[in-house]
């Protein structure tokens, strides 16, 4: 897309099982046009083998430490992956 050749599919991790399941179902309908356009773009990339969407658990998702409340040990483990 930006002139950089890829050796394989782009790996996308999501923590929402509905998003992962719907990325390969062509019969899905969405109410908002902007969501529909983005959805079909992703679904086409998955069908063409250019993207691979997999599940990422909240316990190991580094982005979740910025958006969700974590208990002490989980937060410590996530922060240590970023800082050290």
Task: Give me the secondary-structure topology.
Elements lengths: L9 E5 L2 H6 L10 H15 L3 E5 L8 H4 L4 H12 L1
Parallel strand pairs: 1-2
Task: Tell me about this structure.
With 84 residues, this protein is α+β, with helices and mostly antiparallel strands. It has one domain (10-83). Helices cover 44% and strands 12% of the residues. It has 4 helices and 2 strands. The chain has helices at residues 17-22, 33-47, 64-67, 72-83; strands at residues 10-14, 51-55. Strands 1-2 form a two-stranded parallel sheet. The termini are far apart.
Separation, N- and C-terminal Cα atoms: 33 Å
What is the number of domains? 1
**Coarse morphology:** extended
Kindly state the mean pLDDT as a whole number?
Answer: 81
The portion of residues forming beta strands comes to 5-15%
Query: What share of residues is helical?
Result: 40-55%
By DSSP, the count of extended strands is 2
* Strand order of the biggest β-sheet: 1-2
* Alpha plus pi helix count: 4
The description of the largest β-sheet is: 2 strands, parallel
Radius of gyration based on Cα positions: 16 Å
Which stretches are poorly predicted, pLDDT < 50 over at least 5 residues?
none
Structural class call reads alpha+beta
The string of secondary-structure elements, in order, is: EHHEHH
């Amino acid at each position: 897309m930006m002139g950089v050749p890829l050796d394989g599919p782009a790996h996308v991790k999501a923590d929402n099982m509905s998003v992962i399941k719907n990325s390969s179902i062509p019969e899905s309908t969405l109410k908002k046009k902007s969501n529909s356009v983005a959805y079909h773009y992703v679904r086409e990339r998955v069908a063409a083998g250019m993207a691979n969407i997999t599940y990422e658990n909240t316990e190991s998702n580094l982005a979740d430490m910025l958006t969700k409340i974590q208990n002490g040990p989980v937060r410590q483990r996530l922060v240590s992956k970023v800082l050290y």
